[in-house]
Amino acid sequence: MDTVVTTRSPSPPQLSGAEGDQMLKVPQFRGAVETDARLLSGCAEACAELTARLPPRAERTPGQRDTADRAERTARRARHDFLAVHAGRVYDELTDARRLRLRLDELAFQAAAQYPGLVPTRAQDAADRLLPQAAKSGGEVDQGIFFGHLLDRRDTGEHLMRAMLAPTPRALELLPEFGRTGRLDLGQAQIRRDGCVAEVTICNQHALNAEDDAVVEALETAVDLALLDDCVKVGVLRGSVLTHPRYSGRRAFGAGINLTHLYTGRISFLDFMLRRELGYIRKLVHGLAHGPADDLYHLPGGKPWVGAIDTFAIGGATQVALVLDRVIAGCDAYFSLPALTEGIIPGAANMRLGRVVGRRMAERLIFFGERVEADSPQALALCDEVVAPDAVGAAVATAADRLADPAVVGNRRMLNLAEEPDDLFRTYMSRYALEQSTRMHSPDVVAKLERTWINRKPSATRTGSQHSS
Predict the structure, then answer these.
(1) Which of 69, 384, 420, 458 has the highest CB neighbour number within 10 Å of its CB?
(2) DSSP string, 152-182
(3) pTM of the model as a whole
(4) Which of 116, 139, 163 delimits the end of a domain?
């Protein structure tokens, strides 16, 4: 008879309080960047080693959870302190003294390679993206610290924001085809040129035209194409006809962030939260950046945009409506911005909404989920024209014709400069990077998603979205 021998993995060694305290020390960063980078790397490695010696998260005692929390706080404090001293030097090294315009992911992963322990590597980030939100490592918080410091500085922040206003490589590759055919199907978005008007259509029909990483990618490409094409004078943004049973056959502007994707870990900090604000939404406001930053001849200008609000503009869709030059809504549509439903920050809406509707109404929308019907007096602050649902298309065409006037571009540029100067936006985005990355990984976010959406309609959440912000 064979003898079966079972083995058990050895338990992680127990740490004394003194040993843990010795490992959890934040270095003093006062030297050259190379020296301080080694200190940062050593601190991050020690904190990671300490956490690795603990049992799995679900099996930890209260004391072990406290040790893990202290290790995480120590490493993040070290990253904050290092960047407070060296953010400018780090950025200059990554961008070859600002001769390179790197996008968010390029910056983050080059920083990971050149400054170990500062932000997650590409492999670590990819592994995290395979996990549900509740199980992620929280490395995106470190990305938030990194970009928070870069945006906080005027020199690095302005250079980064301008880099994000450059057309994407995908748009440049597709531009000849779009110029020749006047239409492209980008999957989650379509663009069609009719005369001097380019209509961009959001195509995520099964999820109520909600946004996710792929939708943001497609929309930025489409917006770039409209801005690059010299034949286009005005852009139109509209949602596609839905396939969802409840709204089948009807258009909808959008249902905001896809909260099912957020819950299952498929909404990223870099490619959604930051890219969306610094990418296509800001391009709707300022257009594309060409040439050096100090060349007045090449200042961003942009083109006017008309929004067609069919059925609803929920959460992120209302955020987008705030930056459009003319918003036309069907009389059966509504706006909402229920940020507290999922507990995250509603993009740059906290900066723009109060200016548009006033502080009190902004708080009612964000904190209390107030719904604003398009045909109500309150909606006059959110849209310019309300028409019958079947008249939205004609009203959009009339508005686009008006905005094609050559004098519009210069006037909108000056309006945007007065209302949202670069320093205001840059400072807001610096704080947003820190706040949003932390919010995404806060336990209450997952709890709220489970309570308000995931457990409410378990069958629907596998494929769809909901009214979100």
Answers:
(1) 420
(2) HSHHHHHHHHHHTTSPPHHHHHHHHHHHHHS
(3) 0.91
(4) 163
